[in-house]
Amino acid sequence: MPPDASGFEIIASTDDGMVRVAGEVDAATADQIADAVAEVLDTRLEVVLDLSQVTYMDSSGLRALILCRQAAEGRSARFEIGSTSPEVARLLEITGLAETLLGGPSVRPDALGEPG
Questions:
Q1: Who wins on pLDDT, 14 or 6?
Q2: In what order do the strands lie in the sheet with 9-12?
Q3: Residue 43 to residues 16, 22, 50, 75, 82, Cα–Cα distance (Å)
Q4: Are 63 and 71 in contact (CB under 8 A)?
Q5: At what angle do helices 86-95 and 59-74 cross, to 10 degrees?
Q6: Which of 113, 50, 109 has its CA nearest to residue 79?
Q7: CB burial of residue 111 (10 Å; 0-12, 13-18, 19+)
């Protein structure tokens, strides 16, 4: 899907299970993430979400991430956030969702694109 006016773009690949998101994730765009993850889960048991190009995310985006994780768990599939932008990493930290969604008590350096 080409970027919209806010720069939002999502690319889902059933070949490698990667869902790449860029731009602003808000109430107008968040459901597209859950839809893309569901599309990948229709053909794969693993999906990796790349949020490294997300410039903004609100609570709608957080809800979408939780729904994605629940959808994967419901299919006995693996859901992983492979990388995040600093903005998303900070949001996950301050909301206490870093451990739940990134699998650790704090944001992993590699999730921020930094060396471990």
A1: 14
A2: 9-12, 18-25, 46-57, 78-84
A3: 10, 23, 18, 11, 19
A4: no
A5: 80
A6: 50
A7: buried
Domain count across the chain: 1
Q: According to the 3-state scheme, what is the secondary structure of the chain?
A: CCCCCCCCEEEECCCCCEEEEEEEECCCCHHHHHHHHHHHHCCCCEEEEEEEEEEEECHHHHHHHHHHHHHHHHCCCEEEEEEECHHHHHHHHHHCCHHHHHCCCCCCHHHHCCCC
CATH code of the domain containing 87 = 3.30.750.24
Q: 52-90: per-residue pLDDT in tens?
A: 999 999 999 999 999 999 999 999 999 999 899 999 999
Is residue 56 situated within a structural domain? yes
Whether 4 maps to a domain, the answer reads no
For residue 62, give both structure tokens: 């957080």
* Position 53, amino acid: Q
